[in-house]
Specification:
Helix content: 40-55%
Order of helices and strands: HHEHEHEHHHHEE
Low-confidence stretches: none
Number of strands: 5
Length: 211
């Protein structure tokens, strides 16, 4: 990220990169990355922070057609927010001056599906570590599940995925004094986005400034 770039400039860069990815016109070149690797030994200047899901089908650098040193990526199942993730984001935002955070969830998220299953059939044998992830997501999707009524399963899953993304983004906006200050004083922007496994497209839908 250059000094002149705003969070919205970087957001446009990522959106353009995703369009290239979807169309198969990505610009990444292994020879370029080899040169770039040597340039990055001394320092880094990522343009965006991505809190994404660990799902093997959603590598942020490829999805946004970015290369070495462009993105500071934290990946965890269900793109949940826990202290270690918040601390990692605080580190990159404060140390490298990054002004855009993207919470990147995706369609058919396995962790969200597991959380809906937990509401339907509570597990007695889940490991504590996996339970932490599921229990972090359940409060974000339980209202949708309880109000489901006649909503069919695919619609419920789609809504639950987005609700979980929005909850994580909101947690980052209001769950850290440091990030709150950077939002207020330095133009830090936290955006929620959903990647479609079916199309490869990223929809930036949560936290966009008006206009």
């Amino acid at each position: 990220m250059t000094a002149a770039e705003t969070a919205l400039d970087v957001l446009r860069r990522l959106a353009d990169g995703n369009r290239r990815f979807v169309s198969g016109e990505g610009t990444r070149d292994l020879a370029q990355e080899h040169v770039r690797r040597r340039e990055l030994v001394a320092d880094q200047a990522p343009c965006a922070i991505v809190l994404g899901c660990s799902d093997s089908r959603v590598p942020a650098e490829m999805v946004f057609d970015q290369g070495l040193g462009d993105l500071f990526v934290i990946r965890v199942a269900g793109n949940i927010v826990a202290p270690s993730q918040v601390g990692s984001i605080e580190f990159a935002a404060a140390r490298y001056g990054v002004r855009l955070v993207v919470v990147l969830g995706h369609s058919q998220c396995g962790a969200v599906l597991a959380s809906l299953e937990e509401l339907e059939r509570p597990s007695k044998n889940r490991s504590p570590n996996l339970g932490f992830i599921v229990n972090s997501i359940v409060p974000n999707v339980e209202p949708l599940y309880s109000a489901g009524g006649a909503v069919d399963r695919p619609v419920l899953v789609r809504r639950a995925v987005r609700a979980n993304i929005s909850a994580s983004a909101e947690h980052l906006r209001h769950g850290s004094e440091l990030l709150e200050r950077l939002i207020r004083e330095n133009g830090l922007l936290v955006i929620g986005a959903e990647y479609s496994l079916e199309t490869g497209e990223v929809d930036f839908f949560d936290g966009l400034p008006p206009g």
